[in-house]
Amino acid sequence: MNKQVYDESKIKNNLEKIKHKILILSGKGGVGKSTVSSNLAVSLSEKNYNVGVLDIDIHGPSIPKLLGLEDMKPETTESGICPVMYSPNLKIMSMGFLISDRDSPVIWRGPLKMTAIKQLVGDVEWGNLDYLLVDLPPGTGDEPLSIAQIIPNCDGAIIVTTPQDVALNSVRKSITFVKQMNIPIIGIIENMSGFECPHCRKSIDIFKTGGGFEASKDFQINFLGKIPLDPSIVKLGDSGKPFVGNNNGSKSSKSFDDIVKNVEKIVNKVLVEK
Ligand code: ADP
Predict the structure, then answer these.
(1) Helices H, strands E: what count in the chain?
(2) DSSP letters of 222-236?
(3) Atom number in ligand 1 closest to CA 160
(4) What is the β-pairing status of strands 203-204 and 156-161?
(5) 209 domain-assigned
(6) Is 2 within the bounds of a domain?
(7) Measured in angstroms, how far is the CA atom of residue 36 from the centroid of ligand 1?
(8) N or C: lower Cβ tally within 10 Å for the chain?
(9) pLDDT band, residue 190 (cuts 50/70/90)
């Protein structure tokens, strides 16, 4: 990647054929943001939408791993970078594809990093998409802010949180962060919310439950739903498979289906009101 100033008009032109651009963010790492992004993408693509995922979580680009695409490399043509096809209507582009040594952390100085990200946003050939899901780095610092500002005209943002206090303090910061960017908030997803004992079926609130819902009420934003802690989500993720479609009938899959329906409904409504 070179250090030259990037032609910003390329970004706008390149993203013009995308109907809905959605940012997915979290106040801190490890709450399941990439798990939500990848499963939401698979789910929407299975509903016959044309979907793209842009994973610009530069310090932990985990989408290739979660979707079993770790060894794939995007092709470059004269007109741009071709995203990796997960299925005929789901295209993936990740910082992870561009890092040759996946065991080393990415150490880029600020300007170089931003040019690389602009290049990624402006040069990937998405074609016509219904949804582009953008997986941002966690947190509410300068870095996710600069990255989020590279994507023009976003439809909205989805905030992923876990129910405990530490995560909820950061969700409050995420809400303020999105409001500062003047992007509508599509809603909050509470992940790792409760755990159903596989033996006695009793529900145990390991990280408490309901905090995301409370935060959504306080800030008058949509609550998209909650996903329970489910060991099969870890197992499937580690083996490069989405849990949607592979964990049918489970509480987590059912909850996720409702979340996807809520996202679809809200995003379409936002578009009508625009
Ligand atoms: P983030 O993108 O926020 O850093 P990830 O999506 O990479 O987080 O998830 C972190 C870890 O938590 C992964 O191992 C993932 O499989 C696991 N995980 C995510 N959601 C759940 C859940 N509901 N139940 C159990 N494990 C989960």
Answers:
(1) 10, 11
(2) -EEEEEEE-HHHHHH
(3) 3
(4) unpaired
(5) yes
(6) no
(7) 8
(8) C
(9) very high
Question: Facing residues of 140 across strands?
Answer: none
Q: What is the CATH number of the domain that holds 71?
A: 3.40.50.300
Contact between 35 and 237 under an 8 Å Cβ cutoff? The reply is yes
Tokens of 193: 């919310």
**CA pair distance 4, 21, nearest whole angstrom:** 27
Q: Residue 10: inside a domain, yes or no?
A: no
- Cα of 80 vs centre of ligand 1, distance in Å, is 32
Between 198 and 148, the higher pLDDT residue? 148
pLDDT exceeds 80 at position 120: yes
Q: How far apart are CA 152 and CA 115, in angstroms?
A: 16
For 250, the domain range is 21-273
Please list every protein residue whose CB sits less than 6 Å from any atom of ligand 1. Answer: 26, 29-35, 60, 62, 138, 191-192, 227, 229-230, 233-234, 237, 252
As given in the structure block, the two tokens for residue 85 are 């096809």
How many structural domains does the chain have?
A: 1
In a domain, residue 238? The reply is yes
For residue 273, what pLDDT is reported? Answer: 54
Q: What is the pLDDT of residue 101?
A: 67
> Of residues 167 and 18, which shows the higher confidence score?
18
